[in-house]
Amino acid sequence: AFTCGKIRHIKYGSLCACFYLLPCCCGGEKTQLVLNVDKQLEEVRELLEQMDLEVREIPIQSRGMYSSRLKSYKQEMEKLEKEFKRSRIAYSDEVRNELLGDDGSSSESQRAHLLDNTEKLERSSRRLEAGYQIAVETEQVGQEILTNLHSDREKIQRSRDRLRETDANLGKSSRILTSMLRRIIQNRILVFILGAIILLTIVLAIYFNLRGH
Question: Considering only Cβ atoms within 10 Å of each terminal Cβ, which end of the chain, N or C, has fewer?
């Protein structure tokens, strides 16, 4: 099942913290930090691909909300990658300036540019956190909907079974009523025949009685 909580396994907070530390590091520490960020971004890409596959397995009626959340994740990921790319370019320029011996004003300008990138990354991080919270809540709502649908399906199945049972009982009752009606008709015919015989007997008795006189 699609689980928005898996995103946190990559620790976006740690990823963004690496961006914040870039302007403050130098030399080998900065190189190691850049490699670490690159590795974590690759892990996030793999996770998004896995989530994309999971979304395709979700029923169509519930897929829309998860697809929209995944799309927002990918957009935020693209922003992070662009910011990281800018930071790497700035880092490369800084290294080149250090090798060429540029003055302090260039270094200050570079640091200001990096701080600006850091602020952008911080805003992206906040949007991601808000998006994760919404996604988790959306997933919970989706799970409740699926649970309710399953419960409704069971209720419909039980109602269908009761209807079949009622239909069977109605068929049985109809046969019983038909049998009773047939007996009533037969009884009435017998009563009519008996009445006719009795009436005929009375008429014959009167006839022979009058004839004897």
Answer: C
All residues at 6 or more sequence positions from 55 whose CB lies less than 8 Å from its CB, including other chains: 2, 63, 66, 67, 70
The CATH H-level superfamily of 4-162 is t-snare proteins (1.20.58.400)
* Angle subtended by helix axes 104-212 and 12-21, to nearest 10: 160
| Nearest one of 31, 14, 36 to 91, comparing CA atoms | 31
Identify whether the C-beta of residue 142 lies closer than 8 Å to the C-beta of residue 66.
yes
The H or E element that residue 56 is part of is helix 27-57
Task: Name the percent of the chain in helix, strand, coil, to the closest 5.
Answer: 95, 0, 5
As a whole number of angstroms, the distance between CA 213 and CA 199 comes to 22
Distance CA 40, CA 206 (A): 122
In order of 23, 29, 84, the CA distances from 117 in angstroms are 10, 19, 9
SS3 state at 78: helix
CB-based burial label for 177 (10 Å; 0-12, 13-18, 19+): exposed
List of residues 6+ apart from 6 with CB closer than 8 A: 47, 50, 51
pLDDT digits (tens, 9 = 90+) for 9-60: 444 555 555 555 555 555 566 677 677 777 777 877 777 787 778 778 777 8
pTM of the predicted model, to two decimals? 0.38
Q: Is 63 exposed, middle or buried (0-12, 13-18, 19+ CB in 10 A)?
A: middle
